[in-house]
Design a protein that fits this description.
The complex is a heterodimer of chains A (273) and B (338). Helix content of chain A is 22%, strand content 31%. By secondary structure, chain A is of the alpha/beta class. Chain A has two domains: 90 residues, Elongation Factor Tu (Ef-tu), domain 3 (Beta Barrel), CATH 2.40.30; 121 residues, Nucleotide-binding domain of ferredoxin-NADP reductase (FNR) module (Rossmann fold), CATH 3.40.50.80. In chain A, β3 and β4 form a beta hairpin. In chain A, α4 runs parallel beside α5. The longest helix of chain A has 14 residues. The two termini of chain A are 35 Å apart. Chain B has 338 residues and is α+β, with helices and mostly antiparallel strands. Chain B contains eleven helices and twelve strands. Chain B has an eight-stranded mixed beta sheet with strand order 3-2-6-7-8-9-1-10. A four-stranded antiparallel beta sheet of chain B has the order 5-4-12-11, with no helix packed on it. In chain B, a hairpin with a 3-residue loop joins β8 and β9. The chains are: A alpha/beta (273), B alpha+beta (338).
Chain lengths: 273, 338
């Protein structure tokens, strides 16, 4: 009788340094295979016994067969440990958790605008690469991605090279002027307003709460319907099974009823995220 | 209906303990607590235990797994589940309802196997109430404290303990005990008097205003600020509450590995929701509000209107600032005299 709280052993096969404080970890089971299948937007619990356990969004697309990837910013006990390890290190993993994005239903046939700030790109990258793998099922795709500086842009080769080849328009921005940067400078919310996307598009957004708040206000000004905007939340979690109580907002548990919420549903909940 | 003279209760407890490990409310350090029975342990005269019977199914601390982390590899060893039967005697109607409330959390898919194993291995003998305390308000939740269910219901009259089996498990248990035959009529007068007392409980609550439709109105109610102002955030209400089920998961380094355990936690604590990215409930007002909104609004929204409070009154007795769910419900429900 295995309890859903008990993880299995995983192995970190590859560690890529993306920015000074973000690394991407490839994880497989002890059999060398991907630990489990998932839907874009779902999460998993990673842990090092003795250090702690924490929930992370799965960065890789379900179409990636060989492993699960997690892009993780160094900002706490478990993430400090993850940033200190080398390839081949064992950890524990359990999941997948949460509802995921409606990639095969609501998103089908739609023009998609992804808006990400900082490490907020991590969960969206799973969706973007799923869309790329099933490109014919979706319309025009735009990605707005901002970070503090050029060095903080998670510089996946994919963003600058591969995504454009699949007809994705990438709009990058950094917060402040920087030598050698010729792209856009400014915060994501203002950039989104400047880009003035057609309101028929579906928006998928993830980033720090302050970015979400101001970007939403901008989208409302542009005339977007709440039913066309999706975001994914992060709250503290221990079980990820809807029992430990931490991620409860109103009648919802972010771990099982979310983390993906459409804005009209999110608007009905207390503002405690 | 079966019965045994009151003077022969030690004999009954010994016989129960012969069939499976018996737990019953007994006096310990001046307060009543569910206690593992042994020769000489007697039933408390107090109405209820300080801590609820939930401890027996969802203990304050329990091990989930042990990890061996030597030589760069990790081995995971599942912790043992309850695998022996046990009997809980003397569960009051309020605590019995709390099991139903906890079941809807822990036995919802994916099921919590630690909790499930304990529930499956337990036989529950409830004890009907006839002398409630002034902090009791179970009737607000339509609980009939004069006739609780469980596997067996026990009624303690002046002269005898009467026992009625409600389930097959209860029938089988009673068959093994030194009981004589009794009749329902023997407790009729006792029960009538008990119900009359229970109908006149000093705390009467109208909870009809606590509905999902009013969630945001209640959430934004101006009374949360004054109600929560004196809250110490000590979490005592949570720890004595039979329905609070929030928990933490932590690791403990042992001499040859790591023990992962879970322990009770409280939404009243500031680090309950603390993240490196921020704190969604920055002051005690938000934490205080979460606890009561969950019991009176959020839980019922997910569970066919069942409130996550059983009116046991423990929080009324124990809160150091005399704040409690009754005052909250009355204030938010519109009554002034809380």
């Amino acid at each position: 009788m295995r309890d859903p709280l008990i993880p299995v052993v995983g192995v970190v096969t590859k560690i890529q340094t993306d920015t000074p404080d973000v690394k991407t970890f490839s994880v497989v089971g002890t059999d060398g295979k991907k630990p489990f299948a998932h839907i874009p937007g779902q999460c998993a619990m990673l842990s090092m016994p003795g250090v702690g356990e924490a929930l992370f969004s799965i960065t890789s697309s379900p179409t990636q067969e060989d492993c699960l990837e997690f892009s993780i910013k160094k900002c706490g006990c478990v993430t400090d440990w993850l940033h200190s390890i080398t390839e081949g290190t064992q950890l524990t993993i359990r999941g997948p958790y949460g509802n995921g994005f409606p990639v095969d239903t609501d998103f089908r046939g739609k023009d998609l605008v992804f808006i990400a700030g900082g490490i907020g790109l991590a969960p969206l990258r799973s969706v973007i690469n799923y869309v790329r793998a099933n490109r014919a099922n979706y319309g025009a795709v735009d990605v707005v991605y901002g970070a503090r500086s050029r060095d903080d842009l998670v510089d996946y080769d994919e963003i600058t090279n591969d995504w454009a080849k699949d007809g994705i328009t990438v709009h990058l921005t950094i917060d402040r002027e920087q030598d050698g940067w010729e792209g856009h400078v400014g915060f994501v919310p203002n950039f989104v307003k400047e880009l003035a996307f057609d309101t028929s598009k579906t928006v998928i957004m993830c980033g720090p709460p302050i970015m979400i708040k101001f970007t939403l206000a901008g989208l409302m000004e542009l005339g977007f319907a709440k039913t066309n905007i999706y975001t994914t939340l992060e709250l503290r979690m221990k079980c990820a099974l809807g029992k430990c109580g931490r991620c409860n907002i109103g009648s919802k548990y972010v771990c099982k009823d979310g983390p993906v919420f459409r804005l009209d549903a999110l608007d009905e909940l207390p503002d405690e995220y | 209906m079966k019965k045994i003279e009151k003077a022969r209760l030690p004999e009954l407890f010994a016989a129960l303990n012969e069939t499976a490990a018996l737990y019953l409310p007994a006096d310990r350090d001046g307060v009543a607590a569910f206690t593992r029975w042994q020769e000489g342990v007697t039933l408390t005269e107090k109405l209820n235990t300080v801590r609820s019977a939930k401890d027996l199914f969802f203990p304050q601390v329990e091990t989930l797994a042990n990890f061996k982390t030597q030589g760069g590899t990790i081995e995971i060893e599942d912790a043992a589940r309850q695998d022996e039967d046990f009997i809980v005697f003397g569960v009051r109607a309020c605590d019995l309802r709390s099991f139903e409330i906890l079941d809807r959390v822990f036995l919802a898919e994916p099921q919590d196997t630690f909790y499930k194993a304990r529930r499956e291995h337990a036989a529950i003998i409830t004890l009907a109430c006839n002398a409630p305390e002034e902090t009791c308000f179970c009737t607000a939740f339509s609980i009939d404290a004069a006739d609780p269910q469980g596997d067996v219901t026990a009624f303690l009259t002046d002269t005898a303990l009467c026992l009625r089996a409600n389930t097959e498990k209860g029938e089988n248990l009673l068959a093994k005990l030194p009981l004589s035959d009794g009749a329902e009529s023997e407790i009729a007068a006792w029960q009538k008097q008990a119900r009359e007392t229970l109908e006149k409980l000093p705390i009467q609550l109208d909870l009809s205003g606590f509905t999902g439709e009013r969630m945001m109105e209640l959430f934004n109610h101006p009374a949360w600020q004054p109600l929560s102002e004196a809250c110490l955030g000590c979490g005592t209400c949570t720890f004595v509450c039979p329905t609070c089920q929030c928990y933490d998961v932590k690791d403990f380094k042992t001499k040859d590995g790591v023990q992962r355990f879970r322990c009770w936690d409280s939404c009243m604590y500031s680090d309950f929701t603390m993240m490196s990215a921020g704190q969604p409930r920055p002051t005690q007002k938000e934490r205080f509000r979460q606890r009561f909104m969950h019991k009176l609004v959020y839980y019922p929204m997910n569970n066919e209107g069942i409130f996550s409070c059983v009116g046991c009154g423990r929080c009324l007795q124990k809160c150091p600032i005399h704040m409690n769910i009754v005052k909250v419900a009355k204030t938010l429900g519109g009554e002034r005299d809380a």
